[in-house]
Amino acid sequence: MLKKLFPGLEWMLTYQKHDLRGDLSAGLIVAIMLIPQGMAYAMLAGLPPVIGLYASTIPLLIYALFGSSRQLAVGPVAMVSLLVLTGVQGLAEPGSSEYISLVLLLALMVGVIQLSLGLLRLGFITDFISHAVISGFTSAAAIVIGFSQLKHLLGISLPSTENVFELLLEASRQIGSINLYSFFIGITSIAILVLLKKFAPKIPAPLVVVVYSTALVYLFNLHEKGVNIIGEVPDGLPSLSFPVWSTEAISALMPVAITIAIIGFVESFAMAKVIATKEKYKVDANRELVGLGLANVSASTFSGYPVTGGFSRSAVNYGAGAKTGLAAIITAILIVLTLLFFTSWFYYMPNAVLAAIIMVAVYGLIDVKEAKHLFKIKKIDGFTLLVTFIATLTLGIEMGIFIGVIFSLVIFLWRSANPHMAELGYVGKLDAYRNTKRFNDAETFEHLSILRIDSPLYFANIQRVEARIQQAFLKSDKVDTLVIDFSGVNDVDAVAVDHLEELMNTYRDLDKRIYLCDVKGPVRDTLREAGWYETFKGQIEYQDLEHVLDHLKR
After folding, report:
1. Which of 75, 221, 301, 311 is the most exposed place for a label (fewest CB within 10 A)?
2. Where is the STAS domain positioned along the sequence (predicted)?
3. Which residues on neighbouring strands pair with residue 515, listed in sequence order?
4. Rounded to whole angstroms, how far apart are CA atoms 508 and 292?
5. Residues 6 or more apart from 328 whose CB is under 8 A from it?
6. How far apart are CA 28 and CA 383, in angstroms?
7. Model confidence over 47-57: pLDDT tens digits?
């Protein structure tokens, strides 16, 4: 019972000594990576950098206890940070006390939404967000995030907007005002991050560029030459915080809270599943929702902001040897020690280096390969990705994901409302009945037509099925019998039953017959309840196509 409430107890009670080395190594490496990233992502969210460190402490401990993944690295991520900025900046000035208060409320709302979904076992609803939508949204958001850091990279003032083209236009106008020191720090930091990742991946590149850039500012007094620095970072542990809330604030934040809750979970769960598959254990969607939900509630309670599992840090955590949630606990302890004793080291850290860390981190989220793959395999999925990508890039983060989801659902409904149906003919060399459009040598019959339906039948598609049945009879005056292969029909609703019943009665009055074969169990049960086995006795009792054709030949 306790293991169901606290999934983390499973690895705690069965901990193996030989896992300790990997967990220690991974915990240290992720902490080194998370400290500058956490501060950078907090800055991206319009928050003081120290809040990124606060969000990297208690939430990690909570997830380690309640989450079902043993290697997922929870904490601030770029995508969620941008969503926070997008959703809250219209209500208060970024960085202000009112803004921070609203962000704490947002973290609480995200946590409650995820926790509720998990407790109600509604994790399956995230399956309705297609992979194409997530990929298109992620790629576009990565570009938006990258360009949002131009102001720090160039050392100029740019408007807070998600419109990439507006940012580029304004940056081009201020080209003569660029702070060359900030630009040099940013560009060289990007180069170091890229080169170390490629040629020396074991070296903690974010830590290297932080030390390098901070030393430059300190040694050459670059903060006196226009280079913006982090400045004073409060030391000490995160204090208890209780968000001030109002009906108006909750109403205004609800759209972005739902977006963060769903997108954050989808991103996190996808990575958790990949690692769990490799390690041969299972992660549960509802447990993950509970773990992430409680982590976000704790972030709100301890002065943090919304968190989720990150792709890159989880990959690093796993690659560094993490075997259990102890790695996350070690990461949290090291960040707590940093908050207690080492915050003064960050005083001269330039904003440009944090911008560089963000830009390099999000570059990997731009997935051109996936777009090519989808267009090659299924063009409509490629277009779903493209629509989401363009909408996010031009209309903004929230509107982009909304349009992508709506477009994918419309495509889903269109597909289900237009079921695949095929006229069948006999192919001698295969001794089987196949689609006449795919097999030119398929033989058809003069008085009989065979139709296969490859879809559940329900109110939205039954009229198209009716039209196709009528077309089969209208093809020739000689056709007086239609055999419908139901092998691809796994469900039928009451509306479809009524429509088919009326159609079959109509054709019976015209002295024409419709036979059903290969009817699956659940469909047979529905037809039996509708009284079809009495009304259409002899027309639906055949196991397969060969049986009904043998009967008709007699």
Report:
1. 221
2. 438-552
3. 483
4. 60
5. 27, 30, 60, 61, 63, 64, 72, 73, 74, 317, 322
6. 42
7. 999 999 999 99
